[in-house]
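Weekly modeling sync, notes
Attendees: S.R. (lead), two postdocs, one rotation student

Agenda item 3: backlog of single-chain predictions. S.R. asked that every request posted to the team notebook include the full sequence so nobody has to chase files. The rotation student volunteered to paste the first one in as an example of the format we agreed on. Action items at the bottom.

Example entry:
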Amino acid sequence: MDLVEHIKTRLQEVFPDAKVTLVQDPNPAGQPSFAVDNAYAVAIAMFLRDDPELRLDYCSNVTGVDRLDGVVNIKEKIRKVVDGKEQEVEEVREEKTSGYLEAVYHLYSVAHKRGPVIIRTRTADRAEGAVLPSLTPVFRSAELQEREIFDLYGVRFEGHPDLRRILMWDEFTDYPMRKDYQQPDDYEYEPTPHGDVLQKATVHYQTEERPCTK
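Predicted structure, as returned to the notebook:
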């Protein structure tokens, strides 16, 4: 049994009520990951860290993922009358999917010299439900990286010891790493070859009084 299957089996044994889904990576790397139930995320992380067989005691990095609202095509077989005869045909219907945000943790075992094992948590939506449990109490190395996800994606980590912006200023109200983020047009740009940027600034200053830079 490989490591991924072993971990899946152990999690099902220890947390029978938790929803743990093995997610296959469609990218060339093909690295699978575990989508874990938010209610059990902290307990699962502690188990992965402390279990003697696993000892996944080092969180190397935490990344954010933004999934927009979308549409998926679902194929289904139905029976209908075609040319006067009832027969089974395949039809495709569209189904809307709600967007969400994710925090993805890459775990390694220093003791056993193996990894990564990837776990991910998912928000309920991209608005008021953008809340996830913090894994900083389990992996201290996640502290600044969860702050970065909070700052750039807008995920609020419950249980984080110091959740505040780390790159953007406090008055900033948007999330630059979200896929629907719109860049403002009021930057002070140097005259470079980037004509589209210069054009945005030109239009902006034609409609607003240029702020004082002194």
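Discussion: group reviewed the output briefly. Residues 183-214 form one domain.
Action items: rotation student to repeat for the remaining queue; S.R. to check formatting next week.
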